[in-house]
Prior knowledge:
By secondary structure, the chain is α+β, with helices and mostly antiparallel strands. The protein has one domain (36-174). It is 20% helix and 28% strand. The protein has three helices and ten strands, in the order H-H-H-E-E-E-E-E-E-E-E-E-E. The protein has helices spanning 2-26, 36-40, 53-58; strands at 66-68, 73-76, 84-91, 97-104, 113-119, 125-127, 142-144, 151-155, 162-167, 172-174. It has a six-stranded antiparallel beta sheet. It has a four-stranded antiparallel beta sheet with strand order 7-8-9-10, with no helix packed on it. Strand 9 and strand 10 form a beta hairpin. The termini are far apart.
Amino acid sequence: xxxxxxxxxxxxxxxxxxxxxxxxxxxxxxxxxxxxxxxxxxxxxxxxxxxxxxxxxxxxxxxxxxxxxxxxxxxxxxxxxxxxxxxxxxxxxxxxxxxxxxxxxxxxxxxxxxxxxxxxxxxxxxxxxxxxxxxxxxxxxxxxxxxxxxxxxxxxxxxxxxxxxxxxxxxxxxxx
Length: 176
């Protein structure tokens, strides 16, 4: 009796093995989902950085800098030679990334510069059209990226007038 069950199990295993092998071959494993730090390390070096983005990530100072990967946010305080840097990761509806990188002094009244990046060739990022956010750099504007959420706040030179732009998965639209 024991032999009969053993043979039966062997035959079942022999018959189902090709089915499971075909299923495993049909679905390649999905690559790990990259986070804000991964994408920040891909930012082109010539875009206003004294240190490369990868070097900034390695030189993080716990008391001043923030890398909040669950919320898609990072900030480096700057040191005089390197401007302060802030980055936030947004996702398109198809889950592809949009990285917003802001250079300047987040707490100061100096003008800040905001650049958007999307995946490009060879594992690097390329600049996305600036029209994705309908507000230009300069004129003393301050851009505040969200640590949580999907809203970029833009303040004028005086800091009194504020506009909020919400990411809808395709573009930023002004909140009314």
